[in-house]
Amino acid sequence: MTLTHLNARGEASMVDVGDKATTRREATASGAVYMAPGTLALLTDGKLPKGDVLATARIAGIQAAKRTHELIPLCHQLALSSVAVDFDIDDDQGCVRVSASCRLAGRTGVEMEALTAVSVACLTLYDMCKAVDKDMEIGEIHLDTKVGGRSGSYQRGDRPAESRGAVVSAAGEAPIVTGPGMGGEMDLGLVPGAEPCVRVKCLAELRERLGIGEVVVPLERLPSADIAGLKTALKAMDERFARLDQGRVLCAVNQVMAGEGTHLTSEDEVAFFPPVTGG
Amino acid sequence: MIRVQQEPFDAGLEQQALVAGRTDIGAVVSFTGLVRDFNERPEVEALTLEHYPGMTEASLAEIIEEARQRWPLTGVTLIHRIGRLTPGDPIVLVIVASAHRRDAFEACEFLMDYLKTRAPFWKKEHTTSGDYWVAEREQDHADARRWEVSAS
What we know:
The structure holds two protein chains of two kinds.
Chain A lengths: L22 E12 L2 H9 L7 H14 L1 H4 L10 E9 L4 E12 L4 H19 L7 E11 L6 E2 L41 E6 L1 H7 L3 E5 L8 H11 L12 E4 L2 E2 L11 E5 L6
Parallel strand pairs in A: 6-10
Antiparallel strand pairs in A: 1-3, 1-4, 2-3, 4-5, 6-7, 8-9, 8-10
Helix pairs in contact in A: 2-4
Chain B lengths: L1 E4 L5 H9 L7 E8 L9 E8 L3 H16 L2 E9 L1 E3 L4 E9 L2 H18 L2 E7 L2 E4 L4 H14 L1
Parallel strand pairs in B: 1-4
Antiparallel strand pairs in B: 2-6, 3-5, 3-7, 4-6, 7-8
Helix pairs in contact in B: 2-3, 3-4
Family (chain A): Belongs to the MoaC family.
Organism (chain A): Halomonas cupida
Enzyme class (chain A): lyase
């Protein structure tokens, strides 16, 4: 596989599409904006201070698709025949899912237009809601499908779990959760050996947000034997742990509240969890 | 006495047990928290309480110990329920006994304020418009901070 945007000297260059066949091109991309339940409720009820959030984000996404060539240096200017931006409120995951489809009859694909539409629609959602929620996170922006062109059709599949590279154990201990609503825990097939490890638990909303319940991490993977080092190791093992930095996440070591600098030794139990809401 | 349980509790029976055979208690203050049918959204049909077994009991014991250092208490009962609860169900019970009412009133409020901001419980609410995890409330933190000010 070669990159057609690079010339023989490895420099960036725009691909000459003059000789490509004119075919019907279509691409769909999607992404999500994660927000607090309260923000999502305000959005659903149309009570956010800046007004109709989804209508504004839809227009922004469509406009952005048409201007992709101004933003992405090596993109051609295209006369899109259709741009559609749609939203889906996902209460369970606490997010607005954004999808965009772009279409034209032309010589080049429209995936960059679809991705740009999703990105800008997500940014607009953020802008419209940021007055009430600064912890929102934009994520999972990716191409879903692409039709037409020499490289053929593309359909995004679920990536194999092994490629994520984390050691996650779902079996074993009884679940911590005490009612319905668990799940999302994955067994990634790697069995921890006898080497020194720390056991990491993600609790409550954080477990659902990450889709990870328990992980065993070999101590040798930690750049420093403390919580900060553990976080670095977790993020290197699985990209979902980047969300440990999203919002307020608390931490306990051996069931005592801990901080970034708390020292870790083998067999320690580390729990990450959201702010408590009992009583 | 600390209990974390799925089963309902009877506040009257718990209070009787706390004061049984005692003649040094002059005041008993009891607080019961109930499941409301509205919170961040209307029409809450149920909630699920998750906790962190082990740490929950330890943190509740620590909170009670702190109350005992601040007020001369003659007895404390703290019960917190877990699992699925529906509107009207009791969630939490705090009973504080002391020789005098002021200490019992203040300690009871202190225990609830600290429980809400320090004990590892999490609520997930199930409403007619979907499920969501309850977010922390700044008012709860402000309530807990009152006790830091008065302690300094």
